[in-house]
Amino acid sequence: MNVVQEDIGRDDIERKFRELQTDVVDSVGAEVRSYAIAAGAVLFITVLTVAYVVGRRRGRKRSTVVEIRRM
């Protein structure tokens, strides 16, 4: 078994490092994107709920109560 060893140069190391870095950046980017979408959805629902509750409360305070009595 003759194994021929090739010299490892600076270009080989840089190429491999960039390949690894690209893989890591892509996987982290996808993960961050999914967290951002989830956080945005939660924030949107929270704002909608607060607006609904505040509007409902304000509507109750401003509405006139009309009482009809039968004689």
Report on this model:
- Helices cover 75% and strands 0% of the residues.
- With 71 residues, the chain is an all-alpha fold.
- The protein has a domain at 27-61.
- The termini are far apart.
Kindly report the oligomeric state of this protein. Answer: single chain
Cα distance spanning the termini: 113 Å
Q: What order do the SSEs take from the amino end to the carboxyl end, as H and E?
A: H
Shape descriptor: rod-shaped
Average pLDDT for all residues: 82
Protein structure class: mainly alpha
Write the layout of secondary structure elements.
Blueprint: H1 10-62
Q: Nutshell version of this structure?
A:
With 71 residues, the chain is an all-alpha fold.
Q: What tags apply to this protein structure?
A:
rod-shaped, about 70 residues, 1 helix, mainly alpha
